[in-house]
């Protein structure tokens, strides 16, 4: 009698797990095929609008939500910084180059024993441009670009 009840209980558990998995799969697949036409504001799905355009949804190019420093992007202010200021700051920096197992060169920027930034690729500082700079709680975070693509960052204290 006990074995019969136990086997029925286990069978019911397995069936409920299978039904739950199938239901979860359908929910994820329906949300993932959402197109830009299905959004009320025409900007794509809600997640795209929230994380790409910010919480306020102004639909303009703004600050990213997270800047890698543990603070939210909409609390940061964009600042103007010249390429000469960045090059002057980089003159005091030591560089540690290493190659990842996939063959990508990474330049680690070190100032006073602390890592203040990284550049992915074997670029000379004179060939890099300042993409954007943000005033954060820890200093000014500068994003460096090469031909319009961000290749690294630097934290100026």
UniProtKB/TrEMBL annotation:
Protein name stated in the entry: Uncharacterized protein
The species is Methanofervidicoccus abyssi
So which domain of life are we looking at?
Answer: Archaea
Which classification does the entry list for the species?
Archaea, Methanobacteriati, Methanobacteriota, Methanomada group, Methanococci
């Amino acid at each position: 009698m006990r074995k019969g009840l136990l086997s029925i209980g286990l069978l019911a558990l397995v069936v409920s797990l299978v039904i739950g998995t199938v239901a979860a799969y359908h929910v994820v697949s329906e949300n993932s095929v959402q197109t830009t036409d299905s959004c009320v504001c025409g900007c794509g799905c809600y997640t795209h609008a929230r994380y790409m355009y910010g919480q306020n949804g102004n639909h303009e190019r703004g600050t990213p939500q997270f800047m890698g420093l543990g603070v939210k992007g909409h609390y940061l202010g964009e600042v103007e910084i010249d390429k000469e200021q960045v090059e002057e700051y980089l003159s005091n920096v030591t560089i540690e180059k290493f190659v990842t197992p996939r063959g990508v060169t990474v330049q680690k920027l070190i100032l006073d024993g602390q890592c203040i930034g990284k550049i992915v690729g074997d670029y000379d500082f004179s060939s890099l441009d300042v993409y954007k700079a943000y005033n954060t709680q820890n200093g000014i975070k500068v994003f460096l670009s090469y031909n319009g693509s961000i290749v690294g960052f630097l934290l100026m204290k």
